[in-house]
Amino acid sequence: MAETPHLREDPDQTGCWRAGGDWTLAHAARLEALPAPRGGPETALIDARGIGQMDASGAMLLWRLSRDAGLDGGDALRLREEHAPLFSAVQGICLNPPRAVVKDYGVRAMLSRIGATVEDYTREVIALVAFGGEALLTALRIGWNPRRWRITSTIAHMESVGLDAVPLVLLLSFMVGAVVAFLGAEVLAEFGAEIYVVELIGISFLREFGVLLTAVLLAGRTASAFTAQIGAMQSGEEIDAIRTLGLDPMELLVLPRVVALVLMLPLLTFLAMMAGIAGGVTIGTTMLGISPEMFIARLHETIEVRHFFTGMAKAPVFALVIGLIGCLEGMQVQGTAQSVGERTTSSVVQTISLVIVIDAFAALWFMEMGW
């Protein structure tokens, strides 16, 4: 049963105050109403060994009473052995309360944050290169031993990465193709050149939009899934258990995902190209008076096959980037749910950003090469 807290002066011992009962948050109102010991030489000590239960609120009030009475610790405040650590911790917080951190918005602080961000990104790039090298060495090591190929796992990931993403890729590519054709026709109509919508749709989707849309969709859909899956295993110490069993997490978890993505992204890119052209054909038929036969015939006459190969050549590179970043971020999870969320967000941001940067440099390089 909870006992009512009390603090009384000992009539048999001058200057001694005895505390008893339960000094807990449930008795906060009674604790606040307790008579405070008089300061100065009239109060020699507070004997708190009679306290039954004590929590942080009770310890804080006891510290305040001893401070107001001018007691400087030692034998002036007697505690039960089990209450001493709690009182010491509360006393430390009361003597050194945490201060609110005021964020500095000055130029020096801004430069410091920029430098820290650049350093962090540099470490991420170095880690990605090292992780890619480790994956390559693992692939070369098991490449000559078919018994170590994870065929079942690879096919399962091909289904989740590729087949399950087909409806979304087709729908978005079709809609983007229709929008590009509509906007292009609006501009070209001022010059009486609506027929050049065919070249606009063909070149843009074969060279850029098909592979870029597919890579961005898989960066948000697949990279986050890889990070969450491997991160959950990391936080559950399943990866440590895999290593304990003598298995290689790179061989068991990373390579099947990366291989599945490298195999499926080119196929999805091809479907995205066809869906985008289909969207252009739809707009040409319904709004521009360009029949499907005329659209396909002009596409065949004006579009060179090099545009198709230029777009397809970037698909395996984007697949490697997406797969490696997704798996690397999962491996870097620290073991908490917050870390899983942070790494998942980081993987999506990094993959989309890196895919767009690589695509921009590739476009400039192909242009300079005349391809």
How do the strands and helices of this protein lay out in sequence?
Layout lengths: L5 E4 L6 E8 L4 H5 L12 E10 L1 H13 L8 E2 L5 H12 L11 H37 L7 H11 L4 H23 L8 H39 L2 H7 L4 H39 L4 H11 L2 H27 L5 H33 L2
Parallel strand pairs: 2-3, 3-4
Antiparallel strand pairs: 1-2
Helix pairs in contact: 2-3, 4-9, 5-9, 6-7, 6-9, 7-9, 7-11, 7-12, 9-11, 11-12
What does this structure look like?
The chain has 371 residues and is of the alpha/beta class. The chain has two domains: 6-95, 2-Layer Sandwich (Transcription Regulator spoIIAA), CATH 3.30.750; 147-369, no CATH class. It is 69% helix and 6% strand. The chain contains twelve helices and four strands, in the order ββαβαβαααααααααα. The chain has helices at 28-32, 56-68, 84-95, 107-143, 151-161, 166-188, 197-235, 238-244, 249-287, 292-302, 305-331, 337-369; strands at residues 6-9, 16-23, 45-54, 77-78. It has a four-stranded mixed β-sheet. α2 links the parallel β3 and β4 (77-78). α5 (151-161) runs parallel beside α9, α6 (166-188) runs antiparallel to α7 (197-235) and α9 (249-287) packs across α11 (305-331). It is elongated and about 115 Å long.
